[in-house]
Design goal:
By secondary structure, this protein is mainly alpha-helical. It has a single domain, classed as Arc Repressor Mutant, subunit A (Orthogonal Bundle). The chain contains 5 helices and 2 strands. It has a two-stranded antiparallel ribbon with strand order 1-2. It is globular, with a radius of gyration of 13 Å.
Length: 105
């Protein structure tokens, strides 16, 4: 990755953190899937394809495809590149202890 790529990623992360609180992001990410969704979301760091994330998180390919589309529509995940080499980039990674609103213990 070039210096420009790192700078753009930093700007995206900073902007996303101002716009989306952790619990708001967690609510969108974990809707219907919980911890597995969280793990898959965090794997979308801009270095992996959708297939790479499916393999690493050991999740269903078809279900994850729908999830990716939902995340893209919600503006929390971006597709970078084209075709088979498209990489997935999250707004920012969620901490492993993140919970949906209302699930505080």
């Amino acid at each position: 990755m070039s210096d420009g790529d790192y700078l753009l990623r930093a700007i995206l992360t900073l902007t996303a953190r101002q716009a989306l609180a952790v619990d708001t992001l967690a609510e969108v990410v974990m809707r219907g899937g919980g911890r597995r969704q969280l793990e898959a979301f965090n794997l979308c760091d801009g270095t992996r394809t959708q297939s790479d994330v499916v393999k690493a998180a050991k999740i269903d390919k078809g279900s994850f495809s729908k999830t990716v589309n939902r995340w893209v529509r919600a503006g929390i995940l971006f597709r970078v590149g084209e075709g088979r080499e498209t990489r997935l980039l999250h707004a920012y990674p969620l901490p492993t202890g993140a919970r949906k609103r209302g699930n505080r213990k």
